[in-house]
Fold these 2 entries.
Entry 1:
Amino acid sequence: MLNVGPSHPAMHGIVRMIVELDGETVQSADVEIGYLHRAFEKDSEQFGYLQVIPYTDRLNYVSPLINNIGYCMAVEKLFGLKVPERAQYIRVIMSELSRVSDHLTCVAASAMELGAFTVFLYMIKQREEIYQLVEEVTGARLTISYARVGGVKGDLPEGFEAKCHEVIKKTREVLRECDQLLTHNRIFVDRVKNVGIISQKDAISYGMTGPFLRSTGIDFDVRRATPYLVYDRFDFEIPVGSTGDCLDRYLVRMDEMEQSFRIVEQAYKQIPAGHVLVNEQGEVVKGEDLVDAAKMGETEGIVTKSATFDPTLAGYHKDNRAEVGTCNKRAAMPPKEETYSNIEGLMNHFKTVMVGHGTRPPAGEAYHAVEGANGELGFYVVSDGTGTPYRVRVRPPCFTIMAGLHKVVEGDSMADIIASFGSVNMIGGELDR
Amino acid sequence: MQELHLKLKEKFGEDVLGVHDQHGDETIVIKPAALIKIAQFLRDDADYDMNFLMDLTAVDGLKLGWNPRFQVVYHFFSLKHSHRLRVKVPAADGGSVPSLTGLWAIANWFERECWDLLGIKFDGHPNLKRILMYEEFVGHPLRKDYPINKRQPLIGPGAVRK
C-alpha cells in the first residue's frame, strides 16, 4: 500500500491516490477527491444570474472562457435568447484560443513530468502569448468574466485579428518544434506508449468524453454531435486515436490544437463585420463627467454627446452593442451611454443588476453542453422565476475521467501513474467545484 | 428520432408521472421503482441506444414546496443518434432511489456526490460514502435548509470534536 498525494510534486492538483502495489505493479488504486471543494454550486444559489459568471471563471482556470460561455448559454436557453451572430463568432474564436491554451498546458506539464523540460518551457511561453491575446480582449488573463447572458462583454479590440494570426503562426511553429522533440523521441514514446490504456467499453461506461474518449477511437465531440454556436459552419476534423493509451491522448491533443487554429481562421473569414466606430460631431466626454453634469441639472444636449469610458467598459458602445449582445432588456444591460445619459437606460441598468430585480429567466430548467478542453462541459440551470438561480449544476469533464482513473492505472507500474495522471489533465477547480 | 419522451410514455404508461420538452430538452418524470427497468431499456434498445449517463444530480425542492422534496435528475446521451433525454425521479427526504451502478460505472461517483451534497440514498450502491466533503462533516450542504455561512472546521478554533 502506498499513499500518493494529496500534495505530491507530480500531481497537478490536490488529489490523493491510495495504491496497492505488488513490487512495482499497481494492483488496485483508490482515488480520493474533494480537497478543492469550495461550494461553487451552493454559492451560485445565493447571487444573481450575472454574478455567477465570475465564479465560472474559477472552475477551469486554464480555459475559463469556455466555462463562461457554457454557463451563459445555459441561461440563454432558459430565456430562449438569440445571440447576435458576431457575438457567436467571437465566442467561437475565444473558446478555441482557450482550448489551445488548455491543451498546451496539459501537454507541457505531462511532458515535463516525464523529463522533457524543454517542451514545457517552449509551450508555456507560447501559452503566455495566447494569454496576452485573451488579456487584450477581456482585460484579464485568468479571471476573465467575458461572456454575458446574451452576448459578450465587448467587441474585439482593433487590430486583434492580425495579432491573432501572428500568434497562431508562432504557435504552429512551436508545436512543430515540440512535435519533433517528443513524437519521435524514444525516451518519451517509451514512457507513454501502451501505458494507461482504457478500452472503449470502459470509457463509455465511465462517461468519459473529450480527448480521453477520442483516444480510444470514438469520434465524439460535442461541437460536431450536437452543434452549438456556429460550429456547424466550420470544416474541422475530429482527431481520434486507436489504442486509448497516453501516446494517443498526447497525439489527439496535438492534432486538436491544429483543428482549433483552423476553426479560428475560418471564423475570421466568416465573421460579420462589426460596427465601425466613427467620431460623430458630438463632443466626446467622459462617462462620469456626463453623470456629474446631469446631477447639476446640465442636461442640455446630453443625448447627442457620446461618452468615452474606462477601458474595462470599452467595446460595449451604443453603436456596436447590437452586434455583441442581445437587445433583450430583461437579460442584457443597456449601452453605457444610455445608462449615463437617460433615465430609461439607468432604470434598465438598475433592473438588471440590483438585488431583488436582476436578470430573471422564466421558471424552468435547461441543460446545455459545450465541448470543454477536457470533454463535455454541461451546465444544468434551474430557475424559479426570481433573480437568483434556483440550482446550478456543472457537469465537470474531468470528474468522470477521475472516476475511471483506477481502471487506467491498474496493471501499470508505479512510475506510469505519473504519465497516466498527466494525460488526464485534472483541473481541481471543476473537479471539486 | 424525435419525441423520445412521448414514445417512452406510450411504452411505460403506468410508470410515467409526467413529460415535458421545455427549451427543447425532452424530459420524462418516472416512478423510482421503474428506474432500473427504464434505464436498462434506454441503454439497450436500438432506437434509444443511450450508452452515456452524462450527468446525474438532484434538485432540492424545499423552497418550491415539492412533495416529495427531491428530484434526482439523470441526463442520458446516445453516441449513435446524438440525442439526449432527461429522466427525473422524485425522492422523499431521507428516502432512496435505486442505484444505477449496475448499468453504468460512472453512476458510482455521481451517486456518491449526490448523497454527499444532498443526502439522497441510492439502494444497491456498493460504496455510498462522502466524496467532496470530509467524512466528519455533518449534514448535506446543498440542501436548501443548510445555511450558507455555517462552518464545520476540522482543526483550529471552533473545531468540532467528536
Entry 2:
Amino acid sequence: MTLSDNRISRQLAGRHRQYEPVVDPAAMRPHRSASTAFLPVSAGVIISAAGVLLAADAYTAGRFGYANSAWADRAYWLGQAFIVLPAAALLLSQRLIRESEAVTLVVVLTVAEYVLKICYSPTAFTFADELEHWRSTVNVLHSGNLSTVNYLLPISPHYPGLEEVTAALASVSGFSVYISGLIIAGTAHLLFVCTLYLLFRNISRSYRIAGVAVLLYSSNPDLASFDSMFLYQTLALAFLGLAMLAAWHVGLRQKGMRRASWLTIATVAILATVVTHHVTSVVLAAVLVLVTMTSLVTGYRRSAACLAALTLLCGGGVACWVAFAAPGTVGYLRPFAAGVLHSFQGLLSGGHIHGPSTAAAPFSNRVLGAAAVLLISVLVPIGWHRVWRRYRRQTWIVSMAVGAVTWYAIVAVRFMAADGSELAGRAATFVFIPVSLIAALGLTQLVGVGLKHRRRFAAAGAVILVLALIFNGMANGWPPYWERLPGAHQVAGFERSVGPEEIAGAKWALATLGPGNRFAADFGNFPVLGTYGDQDPVRDDSYLYLSSNLTLADVVKTMNQAIRYVLVDRRLSQFLPASGQYFPDDPNAGKYKRPLPADGLAKWNHVAHVSRIYDSGNIVIYDIRGMQYAP
Amino acid sequence: MRHRQVAVAITAVVAVSSCVTVFVGVPILLKNVLGIGLLAAPGYIWAEILLNYHVDWLQRAAVAVGLALALPVLGGLALHAAGVALHRSAWIGLLAALVLTGDTILLARRRAVRPVPQARRPEAPRVSVHRALALGIAAAVAIGALGLARAGAVGQQYHGFTQLWLTTRAPKASTVSLGVSNHEGKTVRYRLQVLKARHLVATWNLTLANGGTWRRTISSVGNQVVSVNLYKPPGSTHPYRHVATGNYGASGP
C-alpha cells in the first residue's frame, strides 16, 4: 500500500470495485515517523506566510523606485522560495504525512500565491483582461442587463457567468466590483485547485501523489496569474474541475440515488461551464469524450453510458449556446484557430516558422524553460510506464495518460510555431491537468526507487526538480520579467502602463464624449480607454502615429475605421516599448531600436480642422471628425 | 442531524434578513456579512440535499462552493431570459428563494428519509491547537503583507498632472465647453487665456486645490478658431497646457 492512501483506499476500494485495488510498491515509503519530521506542517505554513510578506516587501520597494534593483528582485525570489519550499519539501519528503496535512499544504500554497497576486495590484484591477471583465460587471450592475455591449471584449456579454456571480455578490453585499471580483476569483481559483487535488486523489488513490501532482500543476506558468485573475476562464476552470470530479463519481458503480446526485452536480457544473467560458467548455467536452472512449476500451460499459450522457449534455450545450446565444464565438476564436492551424501546417510541411518576437527573455529564463521542458518530457514516459504496469485497467488514469500526449504537441508548438510561446502558454492550463498527474506518477516512481536503495538524496533531488519546475513557471509566466515588480510607468507595458494620468484621461473621455467612440490609441492606453473610458478603441492604428505626414490613404482608412478621436501619448517618442510593441496590432513589434519620431505624434497639431480637445501633459486627445486632407 | 437543523435555521435567517435589507437600511458591515452569507448559503444547502450520504468533508465542501458559484450563474440567466432586470432586489430574491426552497426540502426529508448513521458520516479533521495557532499567525502575516502592499500602492509617487479640455458638441457648434482639473497633488495657481482668431478675449486666474475642477462654457462663432493656453505658475511665458478647436496650427504653442 502507498504510505498515504490507507484511509482513502479503505473508503473507496470497497465501494468502487470495478477498479482493481491499487498496490503500489513504487510509491514512497515512510522511513521516519511523524515525530521525527524535520519540518512540521505548522512551521511550513508560517514560513509560506513569511514568504508572502517578503515578496510584498519587494513589491513595495518596486513602487518606491527600486523596481530594477537587484536586491528587490532577490527579495521577491526569496519570498517565492519561502512560499513554495515547505509544500515541496513536505510532500516529497520521507516522512509520513496525513491527508489533512497534504490538503493544508496545497491550500496554503494556493492561497499564498493568490494573496501575492493581490499584493501586485492591491487597490484596483490593472491587467487589461481583468479590466475588460470589470467593465462588463459594471455594465451589468448599472443596467441590470447581461447583454450590454463591451467594446473591448465583445464576446464577454455572451459568456456572462463571471459577471453574473460578481454582480450578485456586489449587489447583495455592498462590496465594490474590485473586492467582489477578488473574492469570486480567489474562491474559484481555490476551488479549481481543490477539485484537481480531489480528482487526482480519487483516481490515484493516494493523497500524496495527488499533492505532488498539484505541486507539479503549480509549475503551469498560468496558474498563479491568468488562472487566478478576474477572468471568465478562472471561474470556468472551477466549474470544469467540479464537473470532472462529479463525472468521476458518476462513472462509479453505485446506487441510483448517489449516481443521480452526482449526475445533478455534474449537470449544473457542465451548464455553468458552458455559459461561462468558450474554450473551457470545449475542453470539458473533449475530456468527457476521451473518458467515455477510454471507459469503453477498458470495458466499463455502464460507466461509459453515464459518461456518454454527460458528454452529450456538454457537447449539445456548447453547440446550442454557440448557435443561439453566442454566435460571435466562432468569429472570435477563428483567428486563434487559424493561427494554430497555420502553425501546424508550417510544421508538417517541414518549415520552421518564427513569429514576431517581443522582448527577448533573459538567458537564465530561457535555460530554465528548456530545462523544465526536458524534465517533464522525461517524467511523462516514466509515468506512462507506471500507468501501464499498475493502472491500465483504470479509466481515468488511462485517460490522463492519453491526454498527457498533448504535452509533446505544445512543446512542438512552443519551439517551432509562430507565436508559439503564447499558444503554448494558453494551452498549458488544460494540458497540465493530465501531464501533472502522469509526471507525478513518474516522479514518485523515481523517488520510490531511490529510497528503496537507501539513497536519501532522492527526495532532496525531487524537491529541487519540483522547485526548478515551479520557478520556471514563475520566471516565464506572468508578470513578464520586465514588470516582475510594480513600479513607475512604462511605455507600452501592461500593469505598469495603467496609472492615474491614463485613468483620468479615460474617465474624462467617458464623462465628456460619452461611451462607444472609435478611438485610436497606443498599446498602453488601449485597455484603459476601452474599460475605464468605455470607448471602442481600434487595434490597427499604427499608421496614424508612424509617419510625419498624413496621406490620403490614411484619411480614407480612418474613415473606413470610423475613427473619431486620436489619443497621443507623447512618451512614445521618449521611450522604447516595454512589451516590444507600441500598438495593439503592431507590424514592427520587436523591431524597434529607438522611440517613435516626435513629428509623427505632433503632426495632428497641423492637420486642418482637427481639434486638440484634451491635454494632460503626456496625453493629448484630438478630435478628427472634421478632418480634411491637406498634403 | 442536529447540525443540519442549525444550518437550516441559520441559512433561513440569513435569507430572510437579506430580504428585509431591501426595504430597510442596515450598516455596511452587516450588509457585507449578510451578502457573503447569502451567496454561500444556497451552495451549502443544496450540497446537503444532494450529498445526503457518505462523502468526505473536502468533497462536500468543494461541491458546496461549486454550487454557490454555479447557482447564481444559472439562476441569473433564467431571470435574464424571463426579462427580469438583475438589480439588487432580483439577486436577493433569487438567492433567498434558492435557500428557502432548499431549507424546506431538508426539513421535509427529516422524517421521510432515514438519516445516515452519525458514525458513518465522515467528519472534518480536527485542527490541533498548534496548527490553529500557526494558521492564525500565517493569516495575520498575510494580512500584514496585504496592508504593506496597499500602503505602498497608495503612497506610490506619480508625476502630478493637470487636465485642460475644450470640447464642442459638433464641429461648428456655437458654444464650447472649457475645463481645468488639478491632479498635481497640491494646490496650484493657474492663468488661463482664451484666444479667438489669435486675439486674446478672456483671462482667468484660477487657484485649484488638488482634485479641484473648474468649468466654463464660452461662445464660439462658426469656423472661428478658439485656442486656450493654461500657464503654471502665473507669469510663465510658455503654455503648460494647450487646446484648440478647428485649424489652430498658426496659433499653437
